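Q: What changes when alpha-L-arabinofuranose is included in the input?
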Amino acid sequence: MRLLTSVAAIAAAFVLPAMASAADAPVQVTLDASKPGPVIDRHIFGQFAEHLGSGIYGGIWVGKESPIPNTRGIRNDVVAALKALKVPDVRWPGGCFADEYNWRRGVGPTRKPAVNSNWGGVVEPNTFGTDEFMDFAQQIGTEAYVSVNLGSGSAQDAAEWLEYMTSSTDDGFGQDRAKNGHAEPYKVAILGLGNESWDCGGNMSPDFYVSEMKRFARFLHNYNPAQPMKMVAVGPNGPNTAYTEAVMKAWQGHSWAWNIEGLSLHSYSTGGWPPHLPATGFDEKDYAILLKDTLGMEDMVKTHSAIMDKYDPEKKIALVVDEWGAWLAPTPGTHEGFLVQQNSQRDAVLAALNINIFARHADRVRMANIAQMINVLQAMILTDKDKMLLTPTYHVFHMYVPFQDATSVPLSFDAGQYTTNGITLPRVDAVAAKDKAGKVWIAITNVDPKSPVTFSVAINGVKATKASGQTLAAAKIDSVNTFDAPNTVAPKAVSAKVANGKLSITVAPASVTVIGLEP
Ligand code: AHR
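A: The predicted holo structure follows.
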C-alpha cells in the first residue's frame, strides 16, 4: 500500500492493484487529521426539483384545500423530511422544463395553464410558481437555485423575473410581488443561465451559447443586497469537453460586463442509453454495470477540472454537477415521461460513491444537485397521495450531513478489487472530514455485494477511543422501501472501539457507513 498524503492524491489509490486482495483481509486505512484539505462545500448535497411527473404536483404541492396536511399548499410530511437533510439548495423549475418556462403564467391570483411539452404533454397548471417555490424553500430552510429560460425566452423576460424576485417595492415588479403577498424581496442565491443548451435547451453550438450566455449574464440583475447571487453557465454534457473549453475560454477573457461563478456538468448513470436497467429485480451483473458507469464520474470531473485549471488556475469557477444520479427503466405501468423509478440499496451505494468523488475534488466541485428530489429518477422521497416514504438514497444524504462544510481529512488505503461477470470495480471506498466542532467523520462504502469487509483505520492527528454512527445495509442489493414496508432499508446504529490508535469495524456487503470519532 502506498501512503498518500494529499487529498488530491487519494483518487490514485483506486487504480493501484490490490496488494492484500484476499477478500477477508482487513482494508488498512490511514487517516491523518493533522493535514486538513479543502472544505467540502455543503452545496454538493443540493437537490433538483423539476416540473416533471409528480416531482412538484403531488410530491411537494397538494394545494391549500387538500386533506393531506399542508402549510399554504405544501405538504408537511415532505417538508419535515427535507428539513432533516439540511438541503443546501434546490434547483428549480427545471431541467428541460426551465428553457420553456414562462414565469408570468405562474404568479398572481389567476394562473395560466400550459402544456408541459417536455414531460408527457400533460397540463401544467402553474399553481406552483415563483411565490410557492420561494415559500417551499423557506419552509425547508434552503437556498433558491433558479434556472432561467435562455432557450425560448428573452434576456428581458429573465431580467424581469429576477426583478420580480429580488427588487424592493420601489420597483414595479417588486410592487407586483408585494400584491401577490410578499413585500420582502426574495433571496436568489444561485442563478442558472439555461439548461443543457447543447440539447433540449436549444441544441446550440458552444460558441452560440457563449454569446447568448454573456448577454444574460450582463443584463440579469440581482437587486437584493441581502443575498449575493452566483451565476452558473451551462457546461459539459458528460465527458464531452466542447462547452467546457468554450465557456472557460470566454470567461478567461471576460470584461467588466459579465461574469459567472459556476460551470454546470450533467452526467447520469444509466449503464447505456436509453435507460433500460431495471430499478428492482436486477442481478449482480446489472449492479456492477451501473456502479461501473457511476464511477466514471471521477474521470469526468478530472477531465473537466484539468481544462478549467488551464483557464482558471485559481479555481474561481466551481464545477457544478447540477444533474447526477441513476436514470433507470421507468417503473412498469407508469407514464414513461414521468421518469418514475424505485430506489434500492444499489442507489444508496451509488449515491455514496458520487458524494465521495465530489468530496475528493472539493477544491473544484463546490456544488452538485442530485436528480431529482421527489418521485422522479433517483429520488430522496416517494409519495403516493397521503403516503410518503424515504428512499435508501435519502438515508445516505442524511448520514452524510456531518460532511456539510466540513474540512477534508486525507485517507490512504488500497481499495482492492471486486470482480463479477468480467466487470471489475474498487471493492471499497472511503472519505473523511473534520466538522466545525472538530469532530472527525469517516464514510465507508463496501461495494462488494457478497462479502463483508473489515476496515482497520490507523488514526493520526486526533484523539479517539471509540466511534459511533450509522450503517445502511440491506438483505438484497435490490431491496427497496415500499409504502407497505417503508423501513425495509433503514440505517442502524453502529459503534466501534479504537485500540492502540486503530479503529476496527466490519461492514456488511453493499453497505454505506458513516461514523464519528469520539474522545
Ligand atoms: O432530469 C431530467 C432531465 O434530464 C432534465 O430535465 C434535463 O436537464 C436532463 O436531460
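Observations recorded in class: Confidence is low (pLDDT under 50) at residues 1-22.
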